[in-house]
UniProtKB/TrEMBL annotation:
InterPro entries: Ferrochelatase, Ferrochelatase_AS, Ferrochelatase_C, Ferrochelatase_N
Pathway the protein acts in: Porphyrin-containing compound metabolism; protoheme biosynthesis; protoheme from protoporphyrin-IX: step 1/1
Any GO MF annotation of the entry: metal ion binding
Species classification: Bacteria, Pseudomonadati, Pseudomonadota, Gammaproteobacteria, Chromatiales
Binding site for Fe(2+): H210, E291
UniProt family annotation: Belongs to the ferrochelatase family.
Domain of life: Bacteria
Matches recorded under SUPFAM superfamilies: Chelatase
Keywords assigned: Cytoplasm, Heme biosynthesis, Iron, Lyase, Metal-binding, Porphyrin biosynthesis
Gene Ontology biological process terms in this record: heme biosynthetic process
Annotated protein name in UniProt: Ferrochelatase
A cellular-component GO term for this protein: cytoplasm
Protein's gene: hemH
Species per Swiss-Prot/TrEMBL record: Marichromatium purpuratum 984
Catalytic activity: Fe-coproporphyrin III + 2 H(+) = coproporphyrin III + Fe(2+); heme b + 2 H(+) = protoporphyrin IX + Fe(2+)
Length: 366
């Protein structure tokens, strides 16, 4: 094992609090080789594709990486912006907004770094930034509200894989999920209400979450239940009747069964059965990306309209909206509570009581 030893933590400069924001990642550009490199890293992750390596790797390198990159590259081209990948551009703004808020709230120095699970900036490079800032306590925050082994679990793997190379480890905390946090639910409800204020209330509201293979759920991945709870809490808070909403899963890959119902099927059925207006949101994504812009805002819009629907609205992710940055900052402060050496960034008793009362009111405490 080759250890990363220098520069090690220093005693002669103040220690800072390190926050590592992790999201999924995106290709460096829309070129086919860059997309292939990204997909190769993504699809080689045993948390993402659990199939035996002996079966999967020949299929991946022999078939999938010869065909899919060109198709994905075309899709990425359709969403690419002046600032590059939407996911990366938004994530950078989230990092900067959270850093600004934390600096204002904390007494001591704080460093917020962004690491992508696949592609760049890597988790290893983000950890190196934190180490250079003398962050001896690090809070790892995967920006996935609903835990899944395929995303949150894999982000954990990326952190621990890099830390295996460090001699002097930081003190670590890890945010596991925030699918039922009152601040998250309230932010989603506010974003829906804001959309309705501008575009009117649709007949139906659809929550579209990224899917996972059904098999992973059967083996114990809690993701499906956490998605349901998010949707239920938002609906209860909106006071929407049962026949006015649905929940579905998008982005299926391959031929095996994934979590159902599929977003595509649901929207086609709704359109065909006479539902005229729909709003769709993807609350499992903390930032808009290929899967929301191209798949939900474009592809699925077509499906619904072609099936007979008349009005289709996409409610954007929380992205870098101030309410979202406030919520991420609150979650970070709460998870750092009690860390010595910092001006304790904990909630006061009043804020804690208020949050617990809100959680009870939402029915989110179990
Ligand atoms: C093959 C299995 C996949 C699983 C399981 C999976 C789970 C999963 N993914 C996200 C979030 C995102 N996925 C994104 C893109 C994307 N996802 C897969 C495959 C699986 N995802 C692929 C191959 C791709 C690449 C694009 C493509 O070729 O279709 C993205 C967007 C990245 C971007 O650059 O914009 C996100 C975000 C979640 C939340 C999740 C399980 C809960
Ligand atoms: Fe995905
Ligand atoms: Fe997709």
């Amino acid at each position: 094992m080759k250890f990363v030893d220098t520069p090690a933590y220093r005693h002669d400069v103040p220690e800072s609090l390190g926050v590592l924001l992790i999201n999924l990642g995106t290709p460096d550009s829309t070129s086919v080789p860059d997309v292939r490199r990204y997909l190769a890293e993504f699809l080689s992750d045993p948390r993402v594709v659990e199939m035996s390596r002996a079966l999967w790797l020949p299929l991946l390198h022999g078939v999938i990486l010869r065909t899919r990159p060109a198709r994905s590259a075309r899709a990425y081209e359709s969403v690419w912006t002046e600032d590059g990948s939407p996911l990366l551009a938004i994530s950078r703004r989230q990092r900067d907004g959270v850093a600004e808020r934390l600096s204002a709230r904390l007494g001591g120095p704080v460093k917020v770094a962004l690491g992508m699970r696949y592609g760049n900036p890597s988790v290893a490079s983000a950890l190196a930034e934190l180490r250079a800032a003398n962050a001896r306590r690090i809070l790892v925050f995967p920006l996935y509200p609903q835990y899944s082994a395929t995303t949150t679990g894999s982000a954990f793997d990326a952190v621990t894989a890099e830390l295996r190379r460090w001699r002097w480890l930081p003190e670590l905390r890890f945010i596991n999920q925030y699918h039922d946090d009152p601040a998250y639910i309230d932010a989603l409800v506010a974003s829906i209400r804001a959309h309705w204020a501008e575009h009117g209330e649709p007949e139906r509201l659809l929550f579209s979450f990224h899917g996972i293979p059904k098999d992973y759920f059967d083996k114990g991945d809690p993701y499906h239940c956490l998605c349901r709870k998010t949707a239920r809490l938002v609906i209860e808070s909106l006071g929407l009747a049962e026949d006015r909403w649905g929940m579905s899963f998008q982005s299926r890959l391959g031929s095996s069964e994934w979590l159902q119902p599929y977003t595509e099927t649901t929207l086609k059925q709704w359109g065909a059965s006479g539902v005229k207006s729909v709003h769709v949101l993807s609350p499992g994504f903390s930032a808009d990306c290929l899967e929301t812009i191209e798949e939900i805002d474009e592809e699925n819009r077509e499906y619904f309209l072609e099936a007979g629907g008349e009005h289709y609205g996409y409610i954007p992710c929380l992205n870098d909206a101030p309410a979202h940055l406030d919520l991420l900052t609150e979650l970070i402060l709460r998870h750092c509570a009690g860390w010595p050496g910092l001006d304790a960034p904990t909630e006061d008793a009043e804020a804690l009581a208020e949050r617990q009362a809100r959680a009870r009111a939402l029915g989110a405490e179990h």
